[in-house]
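Late entry, written up from scratch paper. The run itself happened at the end of the previous shift, but nothing got recorded in the book at the time, so transcribing now.
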Amino acid sequence: MYIICVIEKKKEKWGSMTKAIFIDYTGTMVQEDEPNTRELLAYFITHSDLKDPAQILQIVWGQIKELEAKSHGDAFIKNDEKVDCILNYCQENYGLNGDLEYMHKVWRKVWVEAPLFPDVKPFFERTKLPIYVLSNDDLCYLEESMKQKGLQPAGIISAETVRACKPSKVIFEKALEIADVKPEEALFIGDSIASDVLPAKKMGITPVYISRKEAAASEYLEGLEDVRVIKSLNELQI
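Output as recorded:
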């Protein structure tokens, strides 16, 4: 009963104070387990020493996060350059061979063609507040994705806009500037504690952690009991 009351109070608060919604892209809006990603994994398995899909994902995501952490200011690099770095790394360390340009083309499809989760479009359609997409992906791919999916966000703030990747505060500062709202007037929805929840909370933006996987919430939210956790965007009525 207490939890229900707290959630109801938060709904009332958001209804009166929130003026803008920021939402993450990969893993929050679009699915990570999708056909183009599976095609890439199959190609890795066939053309490298790596045979375990889980290991491949771990290596690739590890490289992505490492490159994003270094990508700032004059050292900023866009998605295509990151992919080149990752493929070269896998060539040198895991015997990757084959048609790397083909892999690069499939990777570009991942950024644009990854399907929406079923709850995303209804959320955009029913939400009366402006919704802004925040992502480390490049603007051209995000714009094409929104076009293909029939979504019209109020704005897109990509890493290249500020030449820095989440969790850097500058991308959140730019989002507040573009939306013309104060931190306490914004809500941020994301599926990563490190890249979404913690930096938003530090900025004074109300974070909502979307945990689409059953076991994820309690495992990563220790010490963040005040952060609202949802399994679906259908739980948010704003």
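Confidence is low (pLDDT under 50) at residues 1-13.
(Scratch paper discarded after transcription.)
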